[in-house]
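Notes to self after the call with IL:
- keep both proteins in one doc
- input above output, always
- annotate only the second one for now

Protein 1:
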Amino acid sequence: MIRLTPDNGIPRHILLMMAIMAGFTVANLYYNQPLLDLICKDIGISHVEVNFITVITQIGYALGLLFIVPLADMVSLRHIAIVCMSAAAVSATAIGFAENVWMLWVASLTLGFSSIMPQLFIPMSALYSRPENKSRNMGYVASGLVTGIVSARAVSGYIGEWFGWREMFFFAAALMLACLIVTLCMMPQVTLSFSGTYRQLMHTVVSIFVLHPRIRLYSLRPAMSFASMMCIWSCMAFHLAGAPFHARSDMVGALAFFGIIGAIAASGVGKFVPKVGILRMSVIGGCLQLLAWASAWLLGSTYIGLIMGIILADIGAQCLQVSNQSGSLQQLPQATNRVNTIFMTTLFIGGSLGTFCSGLGWSMLGWDGVCLVGVLFAIAPLLLSACEKNDNVNDNLKPE
């Protein structure tokens, strides 16, 4: 079995495995989005109740990030993979058998909680890569994650339309068991960086958050961007179901393929971070998301407008996430999993907030309300970047 050591490089096949497994696992959070209209009609619940399924799944993920990811500094990744992927398979099966909204909510919470493996792979790619390749390799794994996010919507849209929304989650359960087998066969040995109790470990997470304002900034900025990206997807099924589209869930899946284009286009973002700098990458990402929402609003009654919005929103979010996550992890390389806990928990709290607020925007103003919420979240990273520049806390536009 391969043993990795910090800053000594990662074999390509291990990096590829982490990117693929990250994509398959994070997909659990997004299978429900194209299926919301089908679930709503089958279970007999309101749009607000069914939209809350997505919110709860992301809340579960944020909780998993907070309470499980730090364990990677003191517990074997193989043990974490066994527990999490098995629990994800059970949770997806429970969703497939759910008969009421309460069962859906509980199973969605546990599915999100147990789907955190991608956030163990990304800090691995940073910690064990050679110094000159850290941002690039993080970008590769993060691109696998983003590809999984958008592919999940495409796959679930088609499976939901052809076979039913329940069958989609039975497929997800089987996929998690297959991923567990592959991960256990290929997972390298790594050095644990923390010895102590779980309580002491979590206390260090709190201390890092309190004592490092730059980590807080690097976490909050992409969280607002991720919230903006989530807005465009959380109500897409409702938007396409109405006039002028009158489309089915498979059309949501078809649009998701264009999200894959955005993910591929953004796959090389990481290698530009040392040259362009974190602040400039953040500004570029925020501006791309504003262009995305301009397209989604002005041309929101056409597929072309939605496609342009999807691609630009994904690229913008990737610019912010990869650059800020790279800078965040480099603040404390000896505690990458705990720093990543702060980063990703903040990110998915932002995603949950974006999903929830876009649902409210939809209920009040329809697609115009969703666009308004998305624009507000896209502006937030730009305001944070302006404050960073004005306060002269910029680190010369490059990670330390």
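Protein 2 (the one to annotate):
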Amino acid sequence: MNKFVMIASVAASVLALSSSPAVAQKRSDADRVMQTYAQCVVNGRPAEARRILTLSPETKEADDAVLAISDGRQGCLRTNAGSKLRMQTPALRAAIARQLYLRDVTVPPAETTVNTSAPFTGSGKAQLVSQDVARCAATRDAVAADMLIRADVRSDAEKSALQRLMPVISSCTPTGARLGFNRDTLRGHLAEALLAARATGA
């Protein structure tokens, strides 16, 4: 979906991964603004934030819920007046999921042996393959998933978490599947998976 949340008061873009140091720094700055905004939204409307995660991703209902929770939350952005924050709704959902996880899960999962034999259960929907793979990875290595969720962008902790998690993601990816996440949205997918597992006691 191509809907955008347009919020007055800040200049930032959500950028894809790049090897360019300048672009990487912009991505880091944009992510920091996004996470600060999402944290403010979650703290102000936690019940509505949790409801968003019950809605199937990539649907109009989910997009509308993200737009609705953003309405009236311009005060969450305290930067240069007159500029704008442009966020795709899936990216904002990912940020909200991460901030809900950090708010609700104060103790990381205990270290266990990585279970690469844990079953991969996909939704059967091509547009949700990224979420399916992230759920599989979180099931197989919850510690690595938690590490990435908590790691700051471009930090040594992020690098370590990715080095541990990428082989797990690879083992979860169906042959020929095309994944549609970067590190920022991956954090959100993993947070949703761990929150769902926590809710069911899995």
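Annotation: Residues 129 and 177 are 7 Å apart (CA to CA). Confidence is low (pLDDT under 50) at residues 1-19, 79-83.
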